[in-house]
Inverse folding.
């Protein structure tokens, strides 16, 4: 399955342990707090400019990780769902940890016992599913490497394969962006530059550069900043006309067309108390845990909305805006914001509430594309705000369809 020979081969259970030792933190919550204080002294080891750091190649950060669900049955318990397939939320957690480990491999300084860098997930650019079902009793292999580097950020490409009769076949592809910060996780820090070798790697690097430009363009054209296009305005006006009550000839009277659901009735909410158990190596809540919780809520919403088991086909544009502190109350809110035939686009918004200050702040927005085995009702926006969510959902659905043959799953 396109795997390199002679790669660093790591068992999934070792990934978190390796990360702890790279940063120099303990498994114990009390020791952990002291270790974070000790990290402050590592600031002097940071590079003053990127040019002072040795350049790396893509193969330097390449790793292979085994998730031995076939050969170690005792591992299945954590990964299996009621449909006898693998929980996608668990895979999100693994991808997040592996992405960070790849970046630490890229920035490794052999002379130092601990890394002065705090590497955190900035965003999940895209995850494309290549298979509808992941089996809980066959080995899984993750591979990945750094594919593009800025000054302080790194793009990581990861691939997941599953063993089918001795051959590892592709299951999903993922692109994450990680950022390096100082030991106290307060300011950006420089990372080793990346030198692509050969046309294939140059193409990957160029793609990373394009991804960055595209993210800036999407952000600039965001409906929170800019009016929708003429075509989008027409879509919204057509929906509006389609829901007007012809008998009353009033702008206020709205009728729900057949086989449709008002957007306000396509929501599902949840709450998490952020316990120390869910912390990452920097004493904040682990990004993979947030992704799993958001995914599970989005899945449940798609399940209740569509009335049958939904399959995830794509994840895109998950932005980690602010870290989540231990002890926070995390509010999760999911909304089916766009539908097309058998597909649902679900947006999950998470915010933290700090009881002492009574402050709310947004930490993440997640976008998931689900497929249902039967045609789903059409979701209909009523207000202008909902219409913007609908258009945003349509844009994300368009991104998910692009480069991912959804029907081929």
């Amino acid at each position: 399955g396109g795997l390199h020979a002679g790669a660093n081969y790591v068992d999934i259970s070792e990934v978190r342990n390796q990360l702890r030792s790279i940063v120099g933190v303990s498994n114990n919550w009390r020791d952990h707090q002291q270790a974070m204080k000790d990290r402050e002294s590592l600031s002097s080891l940071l590079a003053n400019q990127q040019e002072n750091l040795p350049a790396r190649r893509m193969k330097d950060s390449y790793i292979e990780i085994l998730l031995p669900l076939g050969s170690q049955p005792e591992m299945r318990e954590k990964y299996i769902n009621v449909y006898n397939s693998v929980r996608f939320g668990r895979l999100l957690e693994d991808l997040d940890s592996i992405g960070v480990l790849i970046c630490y491999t890229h920035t490794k300084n052999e002379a130092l016992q601990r890394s002065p860098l705090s590497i955190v997930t900035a965003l999940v650019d895209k995850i494309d599913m290549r298979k509808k079902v992941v089996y809980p009793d066959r080995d899984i292999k993750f591979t990945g490497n750094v594919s593009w580097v800025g000054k302080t950020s790194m793009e990581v490409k990861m691939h997941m394969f599953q063993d089918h009769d001795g051959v590892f076949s592709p299951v999903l592809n993922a692109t994450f962006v990680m950022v390096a910060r100082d030991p106290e996780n307060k300011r950006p820090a420089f990372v080793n530059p990346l030198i692509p070798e050969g046309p294939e790697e140059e193409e990957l690097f160029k793609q990373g550069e394009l991804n960055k430009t595209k993210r800036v363009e999407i952000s600039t054209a965001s409906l929170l900043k800019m009016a929708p296009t003429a075509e989008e305005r027409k879509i919204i006006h057509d929906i509006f006309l389609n829901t007007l009550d012809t008998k009353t000839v009033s702008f206020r009277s709205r009728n729900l067309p057949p086989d449709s659901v008002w957007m306000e009735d396509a929501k599902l909410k949840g709450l998490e108390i952020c316990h120390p158990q869910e912390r990452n190596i920097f004493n904040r809540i682990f990004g993979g845990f947030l992704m799993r919780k958001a995914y599970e809520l989005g899945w449940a919403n798609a399940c209740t909305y569509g009335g049958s088991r939904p399959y995830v086909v794509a994840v895109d544009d998950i932005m980690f805006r602010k870290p989540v502190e231990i002890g926070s109350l995390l509010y999760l809110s999911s909304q089916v914001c766009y539908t097309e035939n058998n597909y649902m686009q679900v947006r999950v918004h998470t915010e933290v509430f700090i009881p002492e200050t009574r402050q709310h702040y947004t930490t993440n927005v997640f976008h998931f594309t689900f497929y249902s085995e039967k045609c789903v009702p059409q979701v209909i926006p009523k207000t202008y705000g909902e219409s913007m969510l609908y258009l945003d959902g349509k844009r994300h659905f368009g991104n998910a369809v692009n480069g991912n043959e959804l029907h081929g799953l």
Confidence is low (pLDDT under 50) at residues 1-7.
